[in-house]
Amino acid sequence: MSLKTNAAAPRASERESARRIYFTLAAIIGGVVSVYFVLVPVLKLNLAFHFYLMLWITMASAFNVASGFSGYMPFGYVAFYGVGAFTTAILVQKLHFPVLAALPFSGIAGVTLGLMFAPTLRLSGIYFAIVSLALAGICRLVITNLPEEVTGGSFGLHLGSRAEPVLSFYVMMCVMLLALGTILWLSRSRLGKALRAVRDDAEAADMMGVNVVRVRLYGWLIAAFFPALCGGVEAWYTNVVDTETAFNTLTTAKTVIYAVAGGLGTVTGPIVGAFTMVWLDELIWREFPRINMLILGIATVLLVLFLPRGLIGTLLRRRPQWRRYIP
Amino acid sequence: MESLVLNGLINGLIVGGVYALIGLSLTLLYGVLRIVNFAHGEFVIGGSFLAYVLFNSLGIPPLLALPVAAVSFFAAGWLAYYLLIPRLARSDDPEIMSFLMMYGMSIALAAVMLLMFEADSRSIDYAFKPISMKVGPIYVSTARIVAFGVTVVISAALAWFLYRTLPGKALRATIMNREAIQIVGVDVEKLSAFAFALATGIAGVTGVLIALVFPAFNAFSGAEYSIIGFIVVVLGGLGNPIGALIAGIIYGLAEQLATVFLPQALAQIVGFGILVGTILIRPTGILGWRAQR
Amino acid sequence: MSATKTTAAAIGVHGLHKRFGGLVALDGIELEARAAEVLGIIGVNGAGKTTLMNCICGIYRADRGSVSIGGRDMTGLTPHEIAHAGVGRTFQIPRVFRKMSLIDNLLVPVLDRNQTDRALIERAEAMLEQMRLIELRHNFAEELSGGQQKLLEMARMLMPEPKVVMLDEPFAGVHPTLCRFMIEQIEAIAAGGKTVLLISHDLTSIYRLSHRVAALNQGRVIAEGSVDEIRGNPAVVEAYLGA
Questions:
Q1: Would you tell me which of A60, A172, B183, B199 could form a disulfide with B29, CB atoms 3.0–4.6 Å apart?
Q2: A305: nearest CB among B87, B95, B268
């Protein structure tokens, strides 16, 4: 018995120091990033670039909850984004809500849509991916064919004089921090462990006492909530929403690619991925605007072939002991 | 009304034939390689643009473009296979990663076509003589009848190949059980390359037919045909060639008849609805047969 | 741990039928395991051993018949409900959570316990120490060898302190040294008062570990009794040799 406690004591202190390193790292990085984004409007840096950087970090991170944590590939992820965008736009334009009061409803709309799609969670792999794609198509078609008085038809909805770039920038920052906080919590929480177990082997997890259906649903709703918020904030930022841009499949494409580039299943992966790729995208866009899409496509192919685990995923495979510090 | 329905039936059959070919090549790819080819629609539209270029720059009529498309796409597919697929097989989850890779491929190909042909819709101004024929009480354009004839010939040839020849049987055996066929001593690598090339070749040919059957196409049409391909493949049962042929015809008929009775947007929603419903309720497809996994 | 005297069987299986299409996998199984007993289940491949286990833990729904654990009826419950009733198991081919650390693997069955994370982690580390896996605790489970994965599964099974454990071919594909270690572990589990259902087609280890043995053939219990009774049973010999 005494032998056991002797062996356990250094492990406890080692755990404690790992915890300390982890939280210190998280605080430092989180602090630096927050201060940087806070200063963007103050220092008159490129507002649009940083707004979209935060948007993509949020999108890719939330997508990661569905893919990296839960094992689904929702190729119709844009549905949540689009529905969120239209919710805010309709509430503001037609029902004269203040924007900040309308935004939470975008989140609720995303969760509601997530609940409606919940029956598809029993599918897996390619079947889930195709169904998700089709459901996004249905969402787009339904909204496109709603009466023009509601959705503004092909001209879209204009939010008029409510544009407040700096304020919407800070709101986007809050959404991003909320998303990252949630996911950081999730990665250490019991729900997160249950989700990963279900992802790896749902049947075995079930036999180990995990309520598979419930756990999957929780993960799915988290993944549905944030893109809807992003859609709402972006609608406010650009001041206009139409079905072509709100349900653009490129939104899904970018989300997936950025998340994969960093590494699915890690918290830092999608952040690093979005950061790297948005920055690259901007560079390419400035130099070669015509072949932007082409490069995005080729980059995806190359990523899948040569870096399927993403930047962070590959790093952590080389250095398994870092997994304790890099979530 | 009656002639409208008859019109819908005949056009449904013709359009369905094209869909059947898209589904057939897509299902072959999934069956043999476990690849869901998101870029298949772009492959198909690539064939349409090839026919367009051949006709507009060299004056080669669409019927002669068929063999050119078949050979060049087959070769391109063979090459693409060895460039992409063996490396892909090494990843953790090849099935979903292939989907992602082909997603990227579809974006890239659409971008290339956009760079070459702009965003405008294109069509081939080639007229058969006579320009249309009378089928029963209604007129159908000769181009569509010719396209349908070609579809039937290709489908029949493929069915004969898959069910009567040795390489065809090997392909079907691979769909059923990939491990077993390796033990029997078939070179699966080569067979897979052949399947990929064959599917790409069929896609190219289908593209030429689309240029004949549909009024126009553009760089972004590919996604639409990919989705239709998915619907057909799922309806027929993933990896089931005969199922894909039947499902293609059924879907074509349903779509054309739906446009008679429903507004166009609603008809599209019905298409997506069929896809979702089939997967949720009867994932083995209408024939109830699924490739062993 | 004192073995409390209960009238109800630790595992009770009554009239269990299960068919897959035209194949009858279980054909009216009657079986009872007493508390703190090691019940060995033997039978050739396809006799229905694993199907029986899958029915008990709820992954398969039996067509007819009932399963009870400690006198409580389990029929129709979901696998996680059955797990919460105190049933743990391992698999013939290990099914670990591949992309989770060993510690996290062990935490999965106890996630809804009202204990602090710290207490659970300490327990998990003690388990890993017992299974000689402690040095690898931060590795992903997929980085273990097949034999180590079997040990990890056993530790995971024991984490929630189940009353009943089911071991599916624990010695299949395990090298002899590890095999001996596993036998010791199973003996320790049995000595701890748990009811053990031990499935194997390997008779030597079963005869060594079991208090009682049931022989399955074509979905039926063809013989049941002490090790000595089964060893000499002509029906068992015929099922093994005649198959």
A1: B199
A2: B87
State yes or no: pLDDT of B186 exceeds 90: no
Domain residues for the domain of A180 are 15-324
Structural domains for chain C: 11-242 (3.40.50.300)
8 A C-beta contact, residue B122 and residue B217: yes
Q: What's the whole-number mean pLDDT along residues B106-127?
A: 89
Q: Is the minimum CB–CB distance between C121 and chain A shorter than 8 Å?
A: yes
Contacts of A125 in chain B (CB under 8 A): 95-96
Q: Is the pTM above the cut of 0.95?
A: no
Q: How far is residue B10's CA from residue B7's CA, in Å, rounded to a whole number?
A: 5
- Chains touching chain A through at least 3 C-beta pairs below 8 angstroms are B, C
Domains: count for chain A? 1
Alpha-carbon gap, residue B241 to C34, rounded angstroms: 55
* Sign of the torsion formed by the C-alpha atoms of B272, B273, B278 and B281: positive
Smallest Cβ–Cβ distance between B276 and the set A131, A144, A145 belongs to: A131
Q: What's the structural domain count of chain B?
A: 1
Flag whether A8 is in a domain: no
- CA dist B50 → B47, B103, B230, C142, C174 (Å): 5, 22, 24, 48, 59
Which residue from B107, B223, B269 is facing A296, i.e. has the nearest CB?
B107
B155 in a structural domain:
yes
Query: φ and ψ at C145, to 5 degrees?
Result: -75, 170
pLDDT score recorded for residue A62: 97
Compute the half-sphere exposure of residue B154: CA atoms within 13 Å on the CB side of its CA.
28
Question: Tell me, what's the pLDDT at B286?
Answer: 65
A323 touches chain C (CB under 8 A): yes
Helix (H, G, I), strand (E, B) or coil at C53: helix
Task: Check CB contact under 8 Å for B99 and A73.
Answer: yes
CB of B97 less than 8 A from some CB of A: yes
Domain that holds residue B6: 2-281
pLDDT band at A6 (very low <50, low <70, confident <90, very high): low
